[in-house]
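Before relying on records like the one below, remember that each one covers exactly one chain. Contacts with other chains, cofactors or solvent are not represented anywhere in the record.
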Amino acid sequence: MGSSSPAPFAEIGKKAKDLLNKDYIFDHKFTLTMLSAAGTEFVATGLKKDDFFFGDISTLYKGQNTIVDLKIDSHSSVSTKVTVKNLMPSAKAVISFKIPDHKSGKLDVQYVHPHATLNSSIGLNPTPLLDLSATIGSKNVYLGGEVSFDTASSSLTKYNAGIGFNNQDVSAALILEDKGESLRATYVHTVNQTTSFGAELIRRFSNYNNSFTVGSSHSLDPFTVVKTRFSDSGKAGMVVQREWRPKSHITFSAEYDSKAVTSSPRLGLALALKP
């Protein structure tokens, strides 16, 4: 993406989403990443959720203009994603599919202009789902929208619009979503290199209900990050992440629901290793 190009529509409000939700995991997760001499990346992931265990093994190969991502999960499903960069000037294409789901094939194309970004997606089946999103502006201020059209029912299944603002210290966004049924406002303020604060407010027009979440992220030292969040629903969460070597870290998550006094707090542990 060019240095002055606007971000894709999916990036509007992403900084607040990451601050308030990223790394909050309330299960047990283990990830092992290894690199071969040829540059191929191998990743093994295991997830224990309640009494069930899920796992997958993936390989990622990065060529000069091609990225191939292959994943096999514990249900014997094979997912493949092939990304071709520089397919044409300022454009890239992604083909993805899953075996044995023959209806999962999808083609994505992204085009980046100095003042616009266009993303399109079409399912590779007889009655595909069509997705289209676009943003215009600059990397600091941009607005855009997205629509999804289901050819099977000949109907729009999604249409959203939003505007985003980013600079070195502040990131803000206003998004009209859920087919115009709700309005989401987000704000992130970077106080300094170690501390950030963020908030999200959602207004639902159908029932005139408001909900909000506030959170923070603070680096205690170069290797330890503490995150907190609080919501109007009475939930309070915390994440402590410690990196003991480059790209290898352990993450502890906890959440307490003040309205569920008979339930225990939710706890989670994630371990990521990259030799």
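The radius of gyration is 21 Å.
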